[in-house]
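Researcher: Go.
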Amino acid sequence: RDAKADLHSVLRQIRQFSKAVHEGEITGSTGQPFGHVVVVGIGGSYLGTEFVACALEAFADKGLSLDFLANVDIHNFASVWSRIAPEKTLWVVISKSYTTVETMTNENLIRRHMETAGLDPSRHMVTVTSKGSPGDQGAGQELAAFHMFDFIGGRYSVTSAVGGVPLSLCLGFERFERFLKGAEE
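Model: Structure:
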């Protein structure tokens, strides 16, 4: 089947979401604009995005810093938590199945810490997952859910919502779109 319509739909959703975040239309539970994005995932759910974010760091001019939480080491979580202002942080939780033990453990830890800080975690999280997975906005526990597709994996996941959501937030959608055109060429 021709998947272009679905891919373009997700790209439009990413464009609209990143624009709304950059313009302060979408904020955290205290009404403050986001100043930090943390990508939560393991393996292909963050590696390509981290590589591209580092390579293009000089172009990150959207006022949103980017961090990665990729394992369940409590010291890693503590290090990330110490660098952020929780009320101004957007968490991008990435898991195709939304059952990956490490990612779900970190999501649970994030939710507990956000609640302890008096914040509503659902106003600080988005998911990138397969359509119909447990993280597919079924429980309304996040601001938005972006779909990844089974036919995009491994080294190419950075060109999907896996990379598109965080890179559009720190670089802007226009730069992410130029990155996609370069990948296509």
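Model: The radius of gyration is 15 Å.
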